[in-house]
Each structure stands twice: as C-alpha cells, then as structure tokens.
C-alpha cells in the first residue's frame, strides 16, 4: 500500500510504510506483526505541537487507506496499524484520529501479559487502555529503546511513565483506573490475597519442575490450591468472588491443565472438586474468555519449550 502526502517522506517495504509527520522528527521503526502491518511514526511530543500533529496526521492518513490508532504517544511514537485481521483487537482501532490512551504492551501468547489484559477487560477498560501487541519473536527495537528497557512484556504506559511486572501492573490498574475493584479491602483478606499472589511463582516453578519427571509429585502444588479454595464458600474463587488472585493463576492453569492431560495423562481436577469449580468459574468470566488461546497450540508450545531435547 502506498501512503502519499505532500508533507510526508516515504519509504515502503513489503508490508510496512514509514513516514514522518513533520520536518524535524525522524522516521524510525517498523514492525511486522503476524496479523498486521505496522507503520511507526516518530515525533517530538509536546502539548504545543499536539494540535499541529493531529492535523498533519489526519491529512496524511486521509490520503491513504489506513486504519489508524495512536499508541505510545508520550514516548513519541505513533503506530498506524493497517489491515487488522485479528479478532481480538478492539473496534476503536478503526477510529481515524489520534487517541491518547495509556498503552498496554502485550504478547497474545504471554501468560504474564495475559494477567494484565484480563484485568483491563474485567474492569471494562477496553476503551481506556489501548492494547499494543508486540511480536516477541520479532521485537521492534523501539520497544526496548523507547518504551521498556527490560524488553519484556507486559508493560503499561500511563501518565508518561512506563511500568512492568504483571503482579504490580494488575494492582496498579485496579487502583488507578475506574471499574469494579478486584482487590479486597479488609485486612485479613488482603493478607490472604498477598499470600496467594506471592505463591504464584512457587506454584509455577513446582509444577514445571516435574514436567520431565513424575508429575504426580506436582500434585502438592494443586493440593495447596484445593486447600486454600476452601476458605470462602460464597463463590468458587480464591476470595469467594472473582479477584486479582484468580487473574494471577488463570493463565497458568490454562496451560497446565491441557498440557498435563495430553503429555502425562494427568487430570488435575480429579479428586479436587474445588479446583474443578474454580476452573469452571474462571471459564465463565467474559474478560478472561476473550484472552484464552487454543489449548492445542498451548500444548504444542509447551512441548517444544519443556520437552524438546536440549
Ligand atoms: N516477571 C515478569 C515476567 C515477564 C516475562 O517474562 N515476559 C516474557 C514473555 S511471557 C518476556 O517478555 N520475555 C522476553 C524476554 O525475556 O526477553 C512479569 O510478571 O511481568
């Protein structure tokens, strides 16, 4: 696709186009994601040139068939995503004007990023926090250079600051954005929630450490969850009602359950009625459903990652 404008410089390659929106800013990066092509525009952001930018940007984009969104505006980047085919992308990506939304950088395959994505969905922030998908296999250099120096996802850009770490981010979003609270207010509940949140890492490492050995040993980790799920009986979730704790575990259970069944013929729900009810419960949460991956793909990816010979 050609982009033409009297004011824009232009370079094209296979599926990406580059242009700058003013004389001073330079063209920087492109990134080719599996389901779309991306154009990145670099500019020097300041409140003074915002209007000017908007006008210039509109004039450029009007002249071509681009569906545009603005991402990462405060880091000085605009990504124009073209030809979206991905069913998970929000509709407002089609708006042909600049949107200055906080950007949530994720990979659709990353369980840590999934936590934050679920939190955003569950709080109803789909049009308040913009998803920015990053292809981890082909990471654009601007991500590390200009957004998140650790080069990991997830990260969130909000109020001109970029933050990382999924467990911190889900709490950050819960407290800094509107929507139903997903964290308890009572002292004891908070303490219990913190205990469970800090166990997520141990849970993950314990289960994974038995992938190549006797997986029934990993049963202790699932048994622990079965036990803690008995604390509240006003709902199937860790704190009774759905919370950040469920969000922290869901992406990993989504992977462990089909993988252990497929590879080890080990059904994590057998003898664990509360865990069974919990899995049913999270599978009914809309904000989670939309983030789920194809279980077959998850199993294949775990096989490659954990069972391939070194
Ligand atoms: N502790 C981090 C882990 C994030 C993480 O490891 N993300 C992976 C993708 S699932 C990543 O970005 N890996 C790229 C890399 O390590 O360079 C969190 O909870 O956010």
TrEMBL record:
It catalyses: RX + glutathione = an S-substituted glutathione + a halide anion + H(+). The keyword NAD does not apply. It holds the Pfam family GST_N_3. Keywords: Detoxification. Residues 159-306 form the GST C-terminal domain. Its EC number is 2.5.1.18. The keyword Nucleus does not apply. It is an enzyme of class 2 (transferase). GO terms for biological process: response to toxic substance. Residues 100-181 form the GST N-terminal domain. Belongs to the GST superfamily. Lambda family. This is glutathione transferase. It comes from Medicago truncatula (Barrel medic). The lineage of its organism: Eukaryota, Viridiplantae, Streptophyta, Embryophyta, Tracheophyta.
